[in-house]
Write a structure and sequence with these properties.
Layout: E1 5-11, E2 16-18, H1 28-39, E3 47-53, H2 54-59, E4 70-75, E5 88-91, H3 94-102, H4 104-107, E6 110-115, H5 119-126, E7 131-139, E8 147-148, E9 157-158, E10 169-171, E11 174-182
Bound molecules: NADP nicotinamide-adenine-dinucleotide phosphate.
Amino acid sequence: MVIKFDLIAAACENMGIGKNNDLPWRLKSELAYFSQMTTQTSDANKKNVVLMGRKTWDAIPPKFKPLNQRYNFIMSRAGVNLEGYKDCFSFKSLDEVISKLQDEKFKQQYENVWVIGGSYIYEATMNSKYFHRLYLTKVLKTFDCDTFFPKMKDNLVKVSDPRVPEKIQEENGIQFVYHVYENPDFNKA
Ligand SMILES: NC(=O)c1ccc[n+]([C@@H]2O[C@H](COP(=O)([O-])OP(=O)(O)OC[C@H]3O[C@@H](n4cnc5c(N)ncnc54)[C@H](OP(=O)(O)O)[C@@H]3O)[C@@H](O)[C@H]2O)c1
């Protein structure tokens, strides 16, 4: 099985993704989309991996932690206390993450790897040879943000995915649209 990173992010007009270690907007239907995309598998005996940075982990409200029915992978150089959390693993580098994903026993247990942020984790995985797709929700408004999505590669190709609605969405007067981009260099290495 080839390792594949699928990134999923929501960014506003100025490519902001966060403010004060929280999301800058409240879009329940967008969160439901995130949850569905990262949870669903074609093999009922497998679960997906969600890969995130320690601050994104911290930003998840306690009642939703860990993200259920998914293996939670948290990157932290300092280390993170995951005592009492089931199916959660911490990693000090992307190489450590890749080793775990290549582990013969673990390979039987997971299906997709969803990269769920924040900035560094998106950047490092987009620059890796395992970068497959970016599922980007564009929020069609500008919000005050302190964390931003990294520069996207110029050669990404827009594709469609039957699971992703194509029409403009709207909630609480805020419009947003789901995009899917594919890395044409994936699997060429
Ligand atoms: N809109 C969206 O789609 C979206 C998605 C995700 C997050 N967010 C928002 O983005 C913000 C959080 O993102 P962020 O970019 O500030 O932080 P982050 O990437 O979630 O976490 C940063 C932390 O990850 C660890 N880390 C970073 N590089 C590492 C490396 N090379 N090796 C090992 N560990 C590494 C470090 O943890 P230690 O300090 O523990 O060493 C670092 O402090 C929040 O506001 C959140 O709500 C938005």
